[in-house]
Amino acid sequence: MLAQSFSWQVTVIILPLVAALLCFMLPKWGRWLGLVMAFAITGSVIVLAYQVMNQGALRYAVGGWGAPLGIDLYVDGLSLLMLMVVALVGLVVSVYSMAYFKAGKAVHFWPLWMLLWTAMNALFLSADIFNLYVTLELLGLAAVALVALAGGVDALGAAMRYLLVSLLGSLCYLLGVALLYHSFGTVDIALLAERVESTPAVWAAMALMTVGLLFKTALFPLHFWLPPAHASAPAPVSALLSALVVKASFYILLRLWLEVFSQDSTAAAQLLGVLGAAAVLWGGVQALRQTRLKMLIAYSTVSQIGYLFLVFPLASLMAWQAGLYLLLSHALAKAAMFLAAGNILCFGGHDRIADLDRVAQRLPLSLTAFALAGVSSMGLPFSGGFIGKWMLLDAALQSGQWWWVAVIIVGGLLAAAYIFNVIGHSFTRAEISHEAKPVPAIMEWSALVLALAAVLMGLFASWPLAVMDIGAPFGGGGS
Amino acid sequence: METLTLLSWAFDVTLGLTLMWLAWRALASEDLFKGIVLFIAFGLLMALAWVRLDAPDIALAEAAIGAGLTGALLLGALAKLEAGAESRSRRSEILPRPADKTKVFSGLLVFLLLALVVMLVYAIVKLPPLASGLSAQVAENITASGVSNPVTATLLNFRAYDTLLEMAVLLLAVLGIRSLAVVQEPRGREPGAVLDMLSHLLVPLLILVSGYLLWVGSYAAGGAFQAGAVLAATGVLLLLTGWLPGAWFVGWPLRFLLIFGLAVFVAVTLVLQLFGASFLEFPPSLAGSLILLIEVAAALSIGVTLTALFLGGRPQPEPPSSGRAEKRNTSGTQPS
What we know:
The complex is a heterodimer of chains A (479) and B (336). Chain A has 479 residues and is mostly helical. Chain A has a domain at 266-479. Chain A has helices at 2-5, 8-25, 30-55, 77-100, 103-125, 129-148, 152-184, 189-195, 200-217, 226-232, 235-259, 266-289, 293-309, 311-314, 317-348, 359-362, 364-378, 384-398, 403-427, 441-459, 462-468, and strands spanning 58-61, 72-75. Chain B folds into 3 domains: 1-95; 101-128; 148-336, no CATH class. Chain B has a two-stranded parallel sheet. The longest helix of chain B has 29 residues, at 56-84. The termini of chain B are far apart.
C-alpha cells in the first residue's frame, strides 16, 4: 500500500541528498538545480506539516523493521517546527546565495549546503541515538567545509578549530551512546525512555553526551570556537551556522533531557542554567566590545544561546515552550542579521562598525532588516523574541526562581546596547569615505524577509504554540 | 585450559599496556615522522585488539583504514609540510611553545581528564551484566536479510539507513577537500626500481583481495568498507609510483565514481519504493543480490574516494604530463 510505504518524512531527507548529488555531478547547473530543489524541499516540508497537523505525531519504520532492530523516524510538533524553520531560513539563504557566490565558489557551495540540509532534516526526524550520531557527523563536517569555503588564513584556522571541537563533541556523544546501548540493549529513544534506570553508567552517559552536545552548541565556556568560525565564514554560511546548525545539537540535548535523562537531572539542570546565565552576560559584554560587525553578531549568538539553557532549571511546560519560541525567533533574526551584515560587507568592502559611514541612507533595506532583527533579539514588543522572553520570565516567576529574571533583563539591556551601537554608527559619516559596490536587490530583500518573519512571530504566536503541542513533546516536563 | 586462560589474559594485558604506551609516545614525540610511525604501529595493534574482542570486521577496517590509509595520509601531509619550509618536521617548530597561561590550562585539562577516567571506571565497574543487546533479534531475522553475516545484515539491511548517511559523510569529506585546493603539481615523480616492480606484482593482487573481501562479506568478515579500503591502498600505491589520473578522467568520470555508491544506494531504494516497499526495505528474495549490488558500487566509490583524499585536492583537468598518465591509466583502479 502506498500510504503505508511512502512517507513525506523520507522525502524531506532524500530530496536534499539527491540535490547534493545532482549539484555535484552537474556543476554548471548547480545554482539553478539547488534553487529548484530548495523550493521542492520547502514544499515537501509544508506537505509534511499539513499531514502532522491533521494526523498528529508520526512514526515511520525505515526498512520495515521497526525499533529496536531497525531505525525509526519520528516527527512531532517539536521536530516539525525545527524542520519548518530550517526550510524557511534555508530557502531564503538559497535565494540569497544565488546572487552572493561567484561561479568558482558556487560550484562547491551548493553540494555542501544540500548535504548540510540533508543532515539537519535527518537529525530532526531521527528517533535513534546512534542514527543521531551519524547525522551529527554529517552536520559537523558539512559545516566545517562551508566555513573553510571563505578561504584565507582566518577562515581556515577557524574551520580547523571547529573541526577538532566538533569531533571531540561527537566522540563524547558516541561514548555515551555505547554506555546506554550496553545498559539497555537499544538505541531507540522511546524504548530507552521506558527502560532507563538511575545507574552510574547512565550518569556517565548523561555527562558525556551533554558535554559533547554543549561543545557543538557552543554554550559558555565551550563557546570559544564559535565567534571566529561564524564570523569568518561567507555571509550565507554564517547565517546557516548561527541560525540553524548550533540549534541542531541543542535539539538533541533537549530530546535526551526530556525523555531519557528526565529523572536524575535536578542538580545538573541548575548547572546548565548557571552556564546559560553566564553565556547571556559574557556574550553580551563581548558583543559590546567588538569592533567588527560579524564578530559582534557571532558573540550575540553566544549570548542568545544562553537563554535556551535557562529553561532547564525551570523545567515547566511553559519554560520549554518559551525556550523553543526563543530558539525559533533567534534562528530567523540571526539569519537576517548575518545576511544584512553580508550586504554591508559587500557594499563597503569591510565590516568595521566605526566606519559604517551612512549605511542607513545608502543601504536602507539591509539596515532595516538588521534593526528589525535587533528588535527581536532585544525582546522588544511585539517581536518573536518578546513572546519568548515574556514566557520565560513568567515561567521563572511561577517557579519562584526570581534570579533568572534579573539575567533575562540584563541580557536584554546588553543586547539593546550593542544593537544601538551599530545602528548609531550607520547614520554617521565616517572620516574616510569608502568606495561602495552596488548590492543586488535580491540580497537586500532576503535579509528583510527573514527579519520580518522574526517580528511577525510575535504577532502570530498562537499558531506555533499550537503546533508545539502535537505529540506532547514536553508532556513529561510538568513541574 | 587453565594455562590457556592465563596466557590469553597475559596477552591481553600486554596488548592493552602497549597500546597505551604507543598512544602516549605518538602524542609526545618531538619528531613528527616518528609520531606518525608510532601511530601506524598503534593502528596495527588496535586491529589485534579488535580480533581479541571477536570483532574481525572492525579489525580488518582498523588495519586497512586506521593504520594503512590514515598513515599514508599523515605521511603525505608531513611531506607537504616539509616541502613548504626546510626541515620543519620538528613539532616544536610547527606548534607554538606552551606559555605559562597554557600550562595552567593544561593542568586544568589533566584534572578534567582524570575526573573523566574516574567517572568512566566507576561506571564500568558498576555496569550491569551485558543487556541482551540485539544479537538475538538479529539472529531471528537474519534469513530475511539476504546475507548470513550478522555484521553485513546490520550494516546493509537492518540499519542500512545509517550506512547510507555514512556514505554521504565520506562523500562530504572528499567534497570538503576538493573545495579547499587544486592539486598544483601532482606527484609525477619516477618510482625506484623496487617500487616499480613491486607495484606490478601488488596491484593485481590487491584488486583480487578487494574482490574477495567484497564477496566474502555476505557470510564472513569482510564487506564494502574493507574492500574499498584495499582498493584505496591500490590507488595510493599507484599514485606513489607516479601514476596520475588522465585528463579525461578527472572531470565528470571521477565525480561520477565518487557519487556512484551513494547514487546506486538511493536509486535501488527509490525503485523499490515504486513497487510498494518501505524506504530501504529489501524484499527477502532479492535482498542478497541487491545488497551485493549496493556493496560493489559502494566499494568502488569508497576506493576512489579514499584515493582522492590521498591526492589531497581536486586534480586539474589538464595535468602537465597527460600523455604518460593516460598510458599508465590502463593498469589503474579504473572500473572496466
